[in-house]
Task: structure prediction
Amino acid sequence: MADFQTVEVTTDLLICGGGMAACGAAIEAAYWAKKNNIKVTLVDKAAMDRSGAVAMGLSAINQYVGIRDGENTCEDYVKYVRQDLMGITREDLVYSIARHVDSTVHLYEKWGLPIWKDEKGNYVHEGRWQLMINGESYKVVVAEAAKNALGMDNIYERVFIVEPLLDGDRIAGAVGFSVRENKFYVFKAKAVLVAMGGAVHVFRPRSVGEGLGRAWYPPWNSGSSAYFTLKAGAEMTCQEVRFIPVRFKDGYGPVGAWFLLFKARATNAFGGDYMVERKDELNKWAPYGLGKPVPANLRNWLGMLDIFEGKGPIYMRTEEAIQKIASSAGDEKAAKKKLKELESEAWEDFLDMTISQAILWAATNVQPEEKASEIAAAEPYFIGSHSGASGAWVSGPEDLAPKEYFWGYTNMATVKGMFCAGDASGASSHKFSSGSHAEGRIAAKAAVKFCVENKDQPKVDGAKVEELKKKILNPLELFEANKKLSSDPNINPNFIKPKMFMFRLQKIMDEYSAGVVAQFSTNKYLLERALELLGMLREDSEKLAAEDLHELMRCWENVQRMWQAEAHVRSIHFREETRWPGYYFRADYPKMDDKNWKVFVNCKWDPKTGKWEMYKRPIISIVA
Ligand code: SFD
Ligand code: AMP
Result:
């Protein structure tokens, strides 16, 4: 497009994303870059102060091992994650993050993040691994350190990365566009670190119509990491391992503080506690069902069984939990004081991290010390850093990884020079905000080393860049050329608007791929139909149209969601067992099958042939 300026930036290391992992990458890369004369550039689609999943803040740091206090070991953490993921995890990666995560948390404290302390000056734990924080400005604090380390001259905010650039089998950079100005960006780099988060709104959310946009996971993470790595030809892993969080209904307030800190129960409408009444069901999912804590998907599953039997709604018994703690505080005066304290902690939990839940409480006259709140299983999300596991298949560290998991540089994907961290790297769940930051640091150190050892700048094909520019800006052209055909800009015989496109994608995923409406259940035939419909959607994606730059971003977000969807459907289809009931159920293979399926399901899209490949990779345990 003539009125679009092309801006070229040549750098050594390009960090795509500005969230927790990218901020970790920025501080570490800046440190090593200075020593090695390396240029580092960071690009975020939004403003780093409030971008990504931590935009609203958080009320807990969910990964802290506590090694200096002798509380836990890295081995303990590996066992915890392995148990929670029903045996499917890259122990080398989990271990590597666990041994570094505490130092990230100590840095946060140094930068001014208020972490709760008890009267002895020790961190206040929410649970074994979780620390309570005053976290409404968590992201601002972490971003400030990253910005200071890199310098604003090296940071591009509000630039949306779309596509990777390749030089043969090596990464060569990335292209994208500004969401505010008519500028097309070409970043040429020796190494690229992908940290663009996970994906939401691939599935139809529970909140539709007037509630659209409310979800647990922030609507602005649209599968950019998965798309970028897939399009670069990287091997992906655990694409079937979605995350379904149980959340306070409609406001999506997290439950961790209630279950762990306040020790609340969840009961059905008849007062039954599904974790007690359905205990026998856990035998079917042994050994994981019988371990502690019960895996997140199985906790979901027991609650879902109540719902399927017509015993809903399920309630978080906030009133019971608060009254119980308050009454154990001593005499009446002490109990009253404790009650006030708990009341304010309950509100702060949401005000720090999911403000909309606090608003919903206020709007619906809920006082948590008096009235229980409904909870429900949310729609599926892709967030490999939490209790899902989807992401790219990356090399482990040399000292921990078995040879099958090691190919030269820690956290490098199977594409030379492309590194991944946070939600972008797979099979290393439960890293959360702190572990993602730590993993960003690990990956950045390795990426700088890669730049030092691979000094030649990869070649970027100018014709390919022009082709990408045309393709990426096409939705604007299409709108201009056809807008007069109809009086409603959203309805036109020659194009489809991104919102309609997204609804179509969500309907396919919801109905055929084990979404809310299908009660999280699917089978081979439903999945094959989903693939057929996704194929047609892919054809129609060429007709996406955008009225302005904002809508252009929406177009590409939804193309990215569609690719995440396809990787997901292909992976659930390939894994012929049910391993994570409560996340999804394969009705045609209703049992766990360790003999054939205690393996990673990996997939790859080949940029040369446009074909998908699916394969198994072995689980190699490093912790007894
Ligand atoms: O309780 C592009 N998480 C929690 N972690 C905790 O440690 N404690 C909690 O209390 C947590 N809770 C929680 C959490 C998440 C959410 C959504 C809620 C509550 C409501 C999980 C963490 O937040 C999560 O693990 C990390 O943030 C993961 O880090 P990372 O870096 O992988 O993702 P990101 O922070 O979302 O950042 C993504 C960045 O990419 C940018 N981006 N940039 C350029 N071009 C594109 N195309 C891009 N697409 C995306 C984004 O702008 C962002 O900068 S609790 O519920 O569990
Ligand atoms: P959530 O708010 O559900 O994201 O949970 C925050 C943290 O607490 C995560 O580390 C969860 O795995 C953990 N968690 C939440 N609920 C429970 C529970 N019932 N038992 C054990 N761990 C939990």
